Amino acid sequence: MEETDGATAVDNRIKAVLQMSYDTFLRVGLLPQGKFDQLLTAAPKERSERLRELFGAESLEAVRNLAARHGRTLQQLLGDAKAKRAPMPDNPRETAAAAGAAPTRPQPRPNA
After folding, report:
1. Which of 14, 29, 41, 63 is most buried, judged by most C-beta within 10 A?
2. Residue 2 lies inside a defined structural domain of this protein
3. What pLDDT digit, counting tens, does each position of 69-93 carry?
C-alpha cells in the first residue's frame, strides 16, 4: 500500500487514480446525494468539461488532435510531392521515344 502525504501530493494522487479533478469529483460524488441539479444548472461550458472529465474524453480529444495534426502534415507532404512530380513526364520511356532517343540512366556526378 502506498502512502501519500501533503495536500498537493494527495490531490495529485487522487487525480491520477480517479482521472478527474477535485471539482468534478465533488460534483460526481455528490450527484447521488441530491446534488444532480448542480450539474444540470451549470453553465454549458462547465457542464461539458465535467462530463468530458467524467467519461475520460480528454484522452480521446488529445488523440483526435494529434491525428488531425498528423493529417495536416501528411497533406502538406503529399502536396509537396505532387508539386515536385508535376513537371516530370508520366511515362519517361514514351517521352524519350517520342523525342527520338532511348532513355538513359543518369550518370554519377564527378566529385568536386
Report:
1. 14
2. no
3. 999 999 999 999 999 999 888 888 8
